[in-house]
Amino acid sequence: MSSHIARPKVALPPIRLRGRQRVAIILDAAASVFAEKGVEAATMTEIAARSGTAIGSLYRFFPAKELLADALFARYAETILSGLTALADTAVALGPFGLAEALLALILSQRPDRDAAVAIAEMRDDGAALRAGLRDAIREHLEVILTVGGLAPDRAKRAAPVVLQAMKALPLLVREGIDEMATMAELRSMIGLYLQDAAVA
Length: 201
Prior knowledge:
The protein is an all-alpha fold. It is built from 9 helices and no strands. It starts with 16 loop residues before the first helix and ends with a helix.
C-alpha cells in the first residue's frame, strides 16, 4: 500500500449504532488479518468472512482496503492517546509503580491494533513519517503524565522516550512467547524504580 495510490475520497461513516458496531467488528477483523498476513497479502474477502460481514456491506463502509487500513491506524492512535490522556488525571494517585502498571496494561490492551498499525506503516511510502508523528504524540503525552506524577519538566522530557521504549518491549516479548504476566511484572518493577528515582533526582 503506497501513499501515492489514488484512493476513494472517504469511507462511509456509520450513522446508526448498529452501523458503528459493525464497523468496529470489521476493524477488529482487519487488525487480525493485517497482523497475521500483512496488509498487502490481506484480502477484503477474508476480512469480510472473518467479521461475518457481507462483502457488499464491507465495501459500502470501506470502498478500498487502503481506507480500511487508514481507519484502523487512526483508531489505534486515537485509543492510545485518549488512554494516556486519562492516565494524566490519575498519575499522582497511582504512584510510580501503579503508573508503570497502568502504562503497560494500556499498551498490552492495544496489542492487536498495534501489530496491525505497524504492518500498515511498513506498507506505506509515508510510513516512517506516520510512525514518527504518532511516536512524538505519545512522547508528549508521557511528558505530561510524568510531570504530573512528580518529575521535573526537563527530567520528564528525557524520561518519556525511555519509558516509551520500555512499554514497547512488552508486546514484543510476549510475541516471542515469553510469559505475559512475568514479563509485565519485571517491566513494572523496572519502570517503577526508574520513575521513583527520577522523581527524587
